[in-house]
Specification:
By secondary structure, the chain is an all-beta fold. Helix content is 0%, strand content 54%.
Length: 117
């Protein structure tokens, strides 16, 4: 079965950086687009970024463009999200999501990112 396990979240101060990881198993990782989606406390889901199978096509939400970088290592079945210059409004649970025909298929359990001074 599909498993997505996120890690790397934590408590940081504004302006600092974090690198999130998501290890995938149970499917052929290299054949699928992947997404990062986040949910802030009391708010709805917000799509953050996506990457194609080869890392050649990448998109970002305007809220993170220029600060976040999505990447993948297909040899390690791992998806990454590097967040720089983090802001308080970046605080959220971040989910790694497997794509299915442009939609969201399988979700990880999430990793908490808290940005606070």
């Amino acid at each position: 079965q599909v498993q997505l396990v996120e890690s790397g979240g934590g408590l940081v101060q504004p302006g600092e950086s974090l690198r999130l990881s998501c290890v995938a198993s149970g499917f052929t990782f290299a054949r699928y687009w992947m997404h990062w989606v986040r949910q802030a406390p009391g708010k709805g889901l917000e799509w953050v970024s996506r990457i194609d199978e080869w890392g050649a096509v990448i998109d970002y939400a305007d809220s993170v463009k220029g600060r976040f970088t999505i990447s993948r290592d297909n040899a390690k079945n791992t998806l990454y999200l590097q967040g720089n210059d983090l802001k308080i409004e970046d605080s959220a649970v971040y989910y790694c999501v497997k794509d299915l025909v442009g939609g969201f298929d399988s979700w990880g359990q999430g990793t908490q990112v808290t940005v606070s001074s």
